[in-house]
């Protein structure tokens, strides 16, 4: 299945519909049923001890799944998360961006199911794994 939106169009859409967080994230790669999103880690994302906070990592997972879904179905801004879980497995390295690699396993008419693996930029060790389900609104 060929994506209908590329990384540039997704970044533009995010800036339009989520200006409050768009500067923190960048869609870097889109492929069939896959997308990579970068969290541009800054001071606002850190918790005591100098590591990236859990809420920031969850935001990356959620935005990465949203990006891969919209890449496949187009700019359906009202698609929403209906279920999410995240396993935090390792502490992120300080001073490095995080990459969320999202993959859709099922893309139906009303639901999309996938997962996101989060790593430090340039590293292979998985820091967190998220399983997510999105609801797709009916066509109007």
UniProtKB/TrEMBL annotation:
Query: What InterPro entries does the annotation carry?
Result: HotDog_dom_sf, Thioestr_dom
**Where is the chain membrane-spanning?**
63-86
What is the name attached to this protein's record? PaaI family thioesterase
Any keyword Transmembrane helix?
Answer: yes
Domain Thioesterase positions: 49-122
Q: Does the keyword Membrane apply?
A: yes
Any Pfam family hit: 4HBT
- CDD domains in the record, alphabetically? PaaI_thioesterase
Which superkingdom heads the taxonomic lineage of this protein's source? Answer: Bacteria
Assigned keywords, A-Z: Membrane, Transmembrane, Transmembrane helix
């Amino acid at each position: 299945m060929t994506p209908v939106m590329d990384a540039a169009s997704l970044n533009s859409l995010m800036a339009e519909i989520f200006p409050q967080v768009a500067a923190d994230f960048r869609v870097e790669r889109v492929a069939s049923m896959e997308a990579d999103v970068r969290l541009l880690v800054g001071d606002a994302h850190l918790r005591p001890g100098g590591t990236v906070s859990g809420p920031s990592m969850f935001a990356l997972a959620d935005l990465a799944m949203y990006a891969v879904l919209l890449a496949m179905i187009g700019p359906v801004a009202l698609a929403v998360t209906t279920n999410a879980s995240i396993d935090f497995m390792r502490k992120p390295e300080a001073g490095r961006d995080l990459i969320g690699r999202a993959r859709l396993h099922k893309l139906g008419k009303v639901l999309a199911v996938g997962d996101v693996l989060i790593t430090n930029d340039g590293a292979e060790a998985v820091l967190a794994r998220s399983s997510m389900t999105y609801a797709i609104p009916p066509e109007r």
